[in-house]
Structure formats: C-alpha cells, structure tokens
Design brief:
Layout (H helix, E strand, L loop, with lengths): L1 E6 L8 H17 L2 E6 L9 E2 L2 E5 L5 H9 L6 E6 L1 H4 L6 H13 L5 E5 L12 H19 L2 E4 L2 H10 L8 E2 L20 E7 L2 H10 L1 H11 L3 E5 L9 E2 L2 E7 L3 H9 L1 E6 L10 H8 L3 E4 L29 H16 L3 H13 L5
Helix pairs in contact: 1-12, 2-4, 4-5, 10-11
Length: 366
C-alpha cells in the first residue's frame, strides 16, 4: 500500500512537523509495509528528491494546479495524510493554494481518503498590530474548509479537537487527539532511577525555544542546577548565538545539532531536561515528549493551574521556584519523572501508528 504525506518541510531542515512525518513514514513502512511518497509544500525548502528511500516532490510555486498535478501522478486510491500548520505552507499563514488544490482533488476523486493532522489551527488574531489580526478570519475560514473537506481529522490538543468539531459544521462529531511523540526515539531500556544517571541537565530544541531559556530563565536555571547538584548543562541544537558559557558555576557544553542516535545517548544518561514553554501547549512539544520518553525529570520554567491534555504541573513536570523554602525532595522528583514517562506511553509512536493506520485504511473499501 502507498500513501501520500504532505508536509511543509523535511530534513535537513530543522522542523518538528517534518521530523514527526518522517518518523511516521519509517514506522508505517517497518510495521505495515505502507510506503510514503512525500510532497513538500514549502517553496523555501532545500532538500533532495529522496530521503531514506522515500520519494519526494516539492511545490515551489504555491500553486493549486501544481499540487493537483502531483497528486494526479499517484494512484487516485492512495490515502493522503496532510500535516497542517498554516504558517508552514504560507508566510502569512493562509495557504489558500493548498486548500483549493485539495478541494479540486476531492471533486475529481470523491472516494479518495484525506486524513488531516492539525498540528495548528489558526493564529489568535492578537495583538492588533500583527498581520494575524487582519488575517485571522481567512486563517479560520481555511481551517474550517479543510476540516469539512477531510474524511478524518486528528490533532495534538483536546482544545483543537473541540474547535475542529465545531468548525466542521457536523462533519466530525468526534476528533481524535494525540499529544505528539518523541522524534528522537523511544529507548527500550533505561535506568529506572534518576540516581543512576549523570548529574547532567539537557536544554534541547529549536533556536527560539532555547534562546528563551537564556533570555528569561537564567535565574531559575541557576536554582535548578544548585538544587539537583548539576555538574554540566548540555545544549543541543543549532547554536543560539547567545548561549552563555556557564550558569553560575555550572559549565554549558554547546554541542550543536546532533544525529538522533547521539541525542538519544545523551538523554538516556541525563537527570533532567529544561524548557521555558507555554505550559498550556506542552502536549504539542516534541521536546517535552522526548524528556518524558527518556524518563528524565521534565522541568518547565512556568506552570499551568489547570490539567491540560492530561498534563498536570507538579505531577508530570517540575516548576522550580527559588523563592520557596521547602525544596522538593528526591522522592518527589523521581515520582514526577515516572509519572511523565507513564503519561507518555498512551500516545507513543506505536499508538500513533495504530491510529493513523486505522484512519488511512477506512475508505479503501468504498
């Protein structure tokens, strides 16, 4: 069986959605002999016509006609898995060409199967001096058209699932939501106790996320290093240009972008992972997913007062507070690491594959 995955970008670009799609493709091929053909919809992407044995076409002109032509070159019975994030396909987050191309495809082949993974829906429309304020109605309209056009919808947040149900105008009464999986692997064996690991703290992810840590959370990071007796901070990813050489007396080892297996080795032998991420959106973070999958102590600079997507502050991640006198004890930290690990298991890569296979196969016998 063959499927088409439409993505904004793929490696070598640093792109969480592309990594997510490529991991799905690998596992679909390995477990079910389902082969992926990729269509890259970002005209700025620089890559090759094949990646790990998967063929790749790129749309360079943001054209509905080009998309329709590329889709028509494949078997019309092939299921399409679209990874939707508006800003990935259009600078202002309004990929009209993408939605129109898929609309025309479905008109030509009404029995074809379109599954959309909504990684994003649309911008909030605030503040008023941003382009998203003016383009919010169009972004929302495109998301609604896509929801109504899709045979199935999947997303990474319960809030998104509820919105998709609403904007689909009765097309989808239930929308599956799966917090994202780790795109740097899921180790089979890990030391169960944090005490067996090196006193190393990891800061991992894209430039913007790591730069936010150094711009806004150095005081918190210093407290964490003291509290956990951290001997080394390992900064993994494209250099931020602002990474300090140390936090307090703890050196920062800036190792740059690394292959997934090297990241895996580091995570598997580190005690904690640090981030400064919007706590309401941790379910969408592949970095938080990686910390959970490797049973590190996930640490976030800020927390939410609500349980969101099954994630609870103080239960699934630690929010350090240097102003508190009662330091969290070692048992509590181990419990947080364990609970985040078990929370992750319900939506790991294997769970995603099970869901997507069922969604992609549903229309084949029409």
């Amino acid at each position: 069986m063959n499927i088409i995955q439409i993505v904004p970008r793929l490696p070598p670009a640093i792109d969480g959605v592309g990594d997510y799609a490529l991991n799905l493709a690998r596992q679909l091929r390995k477990d079910f002999s389902i082969h992926t053909h990729f269509i890259v919809g970002n005209s700025t992407w620089k890559g090759t016509a094949e990646i790990e044995g998967f063929t790749v076409n790129q749309i360079t002109d943001n054209s509905a006609n080009t998309l329709l032509t590329l889709l028509s070159c494949n078997d019309s019975s092939s299921s399409i898995l679209l990874h939707y994030v508006g800003y990935g396909y259009a600078q202002r987050g309004c990929p009209v060409w993408l939605v129109e191309g898929l609309q025309r495809w479905k008109s030509l082949y009404p029995k074809s199967n379109l599954v959309t993974m909504f990684h994003e829906l649309y911008a909030s429309g605030y503040p008023p001096w941003t382009s998203s304020f003016w383009l919010f109605p169009l972004q929302k309209s495109l998301a609604a058209r896509l929801a109504q056009l899709s045979d199935r919808c999947v997303t990474s947040k319960k809030l998104y699932a509820d919105i998709i149900t609403q904007i689909s105008q009765g097309k989808h009464n239930q929308v599956l939501f799966l917090p994202v999986f780790s795109t740097v692997g899921e180790p089979e064996k890990l030391p169960p106790d944090l005490s067996e690991r090196q006193h190393r703290l990891v800061i991992f992810g894209g430039v913007a996320n790591r730069a936010r840590v150094y711009n806004q959370s150095q005081e918190v990071l210093d407290y964490v290093c003291q509290r956990l007796n951290i001997k080394e901070i390992c900064d993994i990813g494209t250099p931020t240009g602002i990474t300090p050489s140390s936090i307090g007396k703890v050196p920062i080892l800036e190792i740059g972008k690394q292959a997934a297996h090297k990241v895996s080795d580091i995570l598997a032998d580190s005690i904690a992972g640090f981030s400064d991420y919007n706590p309401d959106y941790l379910a969408k973070s592949t970095i938080f997913a990686a910390y959970c999958a490797y049973r590190l102590l996930p640490i976030n600079a800020k927390g939410s007062v609500s349980v969101i997507d099954g994630i609870e502050a103080g239960k699934h991640y630690w929010i350090p507070n240097a102003k508190e006198n009662n330091w969290t004890n070692e048992l509590d930290l181990q419990t947080i690491a364990d609970k985040s690990y078990y929370w992750y298991q319900s939506h790991n890569l294997s769970s995603h594959i099970t869901v997507f296979v069922s969604q992609l196969l549903l229309n084949l016998n029409k």
